């Protein structure tokens, strides 16, 4: 656990450094508000752990990890505008704090800083661009055409959540100069972890106690968002089984990877278990 916290601290330190160079001052304040309001930094940790698993170092992957966190944060800024959510991670959302126009510019600024970090490697840029296309399709689908069955829901979850998880792991593998087969295996691992994460998130929003969860529940139903328990015939227990199946397949994908650092791989295995078993 101490080693994991050291990685998280490295990511946080680099994130603060990148944001500190943003200009002008007003944009820096808005980007700082959006990006440093908290968060588990799961995606950048996946980048770093994937890199170490196949022989790279923390330092090799930290910039890519920070970049994918900035992309994720940019998507959350837009989500909050769409949902009219006034809170994010326990503090005022960006649009509620600064207004709609500055929030949109903040999202643009976050993406600009992210791609500056990816720009030195064409493969990294391509991976993130592909993920953003998937994310955009997913967001548009959610607004215009609610999924009608389990297969359509799973496709949406893969695009909305799995795509950025996949990119995070693939970036880590690229940072370690991995071959395409390894990049793809780590990407599949992370994509399935992301889908499992989304399914469990939907279940918790539907059935968890708000105090235990640490945030209000019923968000998906109130906003008529396509949750696994809203658009499929699955019970919460059956949905959890689907999440477990995705986590198991994630572990199967990880088994195809030639491991250089067993400790880093163990953290990836624990993440696959955590996203299914978490209570908040």
TrEMBL record:
InterPro entries: Isoprenoid_synthase_dom_sf, Polyprenyl_synt, Polyprenyl_synt_CS
Gene Ontology biological-process entries: isoprenoid biosynthetic process
Any Pfam family hit: polyprenyl_synt
Molecular functions (GO terms): metal ion binding; transferase activity
EC number of this enzyme: 2.5.1.-
PROSITE patterns assigned: POLYPRENYL_SYNTHASE_1 (PS00723), POLYPRENYL_SYNTHASE_2 (PS00444)
UniProt xrefs under Gene3D superfamilies: Farnesyl Diphosphate Synthase
CDD domains according to UniProt: Trans_IPPS_HT
Enzyme class, broadest EC rank: transferase
Family: Belongs to the FPP/GGPP synthase family.
Full protein name: Polyprenyl synthetase family protein
